[in-house]
Structure formats: C-alpha cells, structure tokens
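Need the bound structure for 3-methyl-2-oxobutanoic acid, inputs here:
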Amino acid sequence: MTDQDRVKIFDTTLRDGEQSPGCSMNLGEKLRIGQALADLGVDIIEAGFPAASPGDFEAVEALAETIRGPVICGLARCNTGDIEATARAIKGAEKSRIHVFVATSAIHREHKLQMAKEEIIRSAVEGVRLARSFCDDVEFSPEDASRTEPEYLAEVVAAAIEAGATTINIPDTVGYTVPGEFLELFRFLKSGVTGIDDVTLSVHCHDDLGMAVANSLAAVEGGARQVECTINGIGERAGNCSLEELVMALRTRESYFGLSCGVKSERLYPTCRLVSTITGMPIPRNKAIIGGNAFAHESGIHQHGMLRNSATYEIMSPQDVGLNRSNLVLGKHSGRHAFRDRISELGFALDDVELNRAFAEFKKLADQKKEVFDSDIESIVLHAEIERPGPWSLADLRIASGKGAFASAALGLTHVDGRTVREAGVGDGPIDAAFQAIERATGVDVTLLDFEVRSVSVGEDAQGEVAVLVRFEDRDYRGHGISTDITEAGALAFLDVINRVVRARERNAIAAETTASRAAGSI
Ligand code: KIV
Ligand code: ZN
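Answer from helper R.:
Posting the output first, comments after.
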C-alpha cells in the first residue's frame, strides 16, 4: 500500500469536539478518551489548544507523556506565545506535531484580524518557520479556506509549504461548502500549487448544512489524504465530520474510493459510547453507524428479506462496527467469569480495579432487576471506567410525591473533605424537589437548559439514564446519571453537573491567583 492509497485519520474530539457547548472534559476523561483513540487506531490525536488555558496546556502535556502510537498534536495561532506553549506541551510525545492556523477569507481579514492579504501571508510563513524550529511535523490551516478567494488561498498555501509545512489542511470552518464545489477546490490546489505533492493534503469540515462527511469525502476524491474528524461528530455549533461515518464510508465503499485507513472499525461502537457517556451528549437513535436504530429492521418485508440474507437490507454488519450484541442475559447467579467474558465480547478492556468496580455494580444491579442485558452491562462498564472526582457524592435520597401535591426531597451529600450535608427541597415534581435540595446543599445555583431520560434496556425494571445540560455564569455544563430509579438517576446527573461547575470554579480561582502572583512578580 502506498501513501496515496491510505487516508490518515486525524481525530480532533479533544480539541474541536471539546469546543461543543457543554462538552468540556476533565484531565482524567481526556486521558481515557486519548487511550481509546489510540486503541481505535487513529493516526493523529489533536489533544488541545495549549495556549487557550492552563487546563488545556496540562491536558496536552499529559496526553503527550502518556499516549503511545498516534502522533500527538497541539493547536496554535501564528504567534510566538502560542507556538512556544505548544512546543513545550508536546515535548514528551513519542511523535509530535504543531498545528498552526491563521484565517484567510475576506470576512475574517477585515472583521476579525484587520490584516491585509500580505500581512496574513507573512504571519503564516513566520508561524510555520517558528513551529518548524521546534518540530519536524508542522501542519498549517488557512482558517475559513472554503470562503477564501481560490487564487489567494493557493498563494498562502504555497508560501506555507515553502516555509516548511508538512501537512496543509483546508478547513470548511463554517460548514458552507458543498461537495461538488469542494472537489473542484481540491483539484485546483492539487494541480496549481507548487510543492503540494510533497506534503499531506488534509480536510477539516463542519456540519452546519449537514454535509461535513460528504464534503470530506469529496475532498478525498480531490486528493486529500488526511481527514480531520471527531467521534460522534461533536464540535463547534453543529459539529465536525463524524469519524465513524467517514471510516465506514471508506470501508463500505472501498471499491469506489480505492482507499483504506488504519482505524479498527470493530472498536467504533465502544469508543463512540465512551465519548457519549463522558460528554453527556446522547447518541440519537437514528444516528448513522452507531445509533440505536442503525441495524434495526421494523418493516415486515425488510425482516423477511433479512432472514433470508442480511445483505438484502444491510450494507454493513453490526459486528463490523463493534456491535457484538447477543440475546444472552446475565442475572444474579452469573459469576465473575461470565461477566468478564461478556465485557470483552462487547469490546471493552478493563483493568483489575475497573473490573472489580464494574462487577460490584453488576451484582447490585442484578439484585434490583431480574435480567441484565448487554446494554445494562455496557452502561455499568462505561460508568465504572470513568472516575468521578467529586467533590460531592450522593449519600441518601428520600422522595415524597403524589398527584395534586408538591413533591419533597430530603437528601444527604458527602463532600470529599469528610462532611455530610443534609438538605430538603420542595418542587413541582420529585426531580425538581431533588434538584432544589442539591442546589441548597452545595450552594451552587444553575439554570437547567435540558433534561433527557432514556431507557438503557427493556422491561419495567429497566435502568434509566438521565442527561442534563445547565448554564452557570455563561458556560454550559453537561452531566449524566444512571439508576433503576429515575429520580435517583436525575439526582446523580444533576450532582455530576454541579461537581463539574465546582471543579471549574476551583480551576479558574487557581488560574486567577497564578496570574495575579505573576503580575505582582512573585512567580
Ligand atoms: O474549523 C476550523 O477552521 C478549525 C481550524 C483551527 C483548523 O478548527
Ligand atoms: Zn474546526
């Protein structure tokens, strides 16, 4: 296989994906996703934007030091501070990359940067040169490329290549282009820019018009050999090109594209579920590849065809994307062995500590519900894999409610410092009452924006998973909780989100203190 037959997968879940409202992740969560991406077989992980905040810097540095296999990349604007910070953050990586960008379209030149065309070229060249002085692998992106005059875009790209860029990425920053137009742009750059055949040509699409995957595939047809994407398509506004859709399009239509990539497709489903659980962004049932309905056949005619030959209505098999579901049901008499085997068949790998935690949860659940299905096990595993750093946890919860009366909640919350706070709340319903009590106990008041409940498996005793989205001081936070008791699942989700707010407030206080000490000259 030559380089030209292979498409590199550049994952930006931890950078552009994290820019999705309410999707910010803590360090432990980023490391967990980074390892899952390495196990999935992506070529490059964009770990963050080190100059954006101390938390971003710390995350890129930790991923660079820990994750082995993929190239670890950090994003930087074309200025000395950003590039030096990125070089420091990626220092510990086995393989590293600096990704520099500057906007090139007329609208960004005039209204955002107030820079002339020549100044932007100078900035790009200086940025690439400085990045090359730290790292041999440098990617350059002309932001808003799809709305940039093509002749000028070609000039910027040629200058970046001459300055030493090894990858040229063409972003459709606002999801504006359409496949035919983008294909032409790539053909134009491929045929007209000096040195373009000596670098990797890359594409980065947003999904504002729902065409991010289609536009990325058009770019591949036009010569792109790196695609930038995110798990579940999360990202700014409507999101980015979805990794699982792009990978399965290349694989399922290999005879058309004649290209392959290094992603292990059977790891897609567990990875997508992990990202959904960590970010609290549910996967829509009708989502291509990994949605709950992606392999469900409702119509009688379809079911009949499927029974004869699955190829009648399925272009991929569930196993291809890691959906190794079975009708096997575990219960309270199932042992550790059966549990561990089922976990690995479902595509998860747990270390001993995680397995013990998950098995204890499984036993608790098996006591509460007769039959434990694959989807229950998946939820247990995903929740066991994610460490919940607190500081608050739910000690107990009592609810009283009835038709035509206010509901009341009484609960105890334990703080990591050892104290337990007891509070009560009254509300329109049990969930509202529990939320009021949690706000009182923690002293954190948030605005609830969204509340979603879904059933994890089937049956009257099925577990419920709750996802909440709240706003606190102009920032959105997501949280989730799971339980056979829906009010408890709601309380756990709300507490998860309050913990995220508390931790963010502590991080901001530390950052403000550091800045103040620096300004006072004591650091
Ligand atoms: O959408 C965009 O233009 C970006 C760049 C930084 C590549 O995310
Ligand atoms: Zn982007």
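Comments: The chain has a mean pLDDT of 92. The two ends are 53 Å apart (CA to CA).
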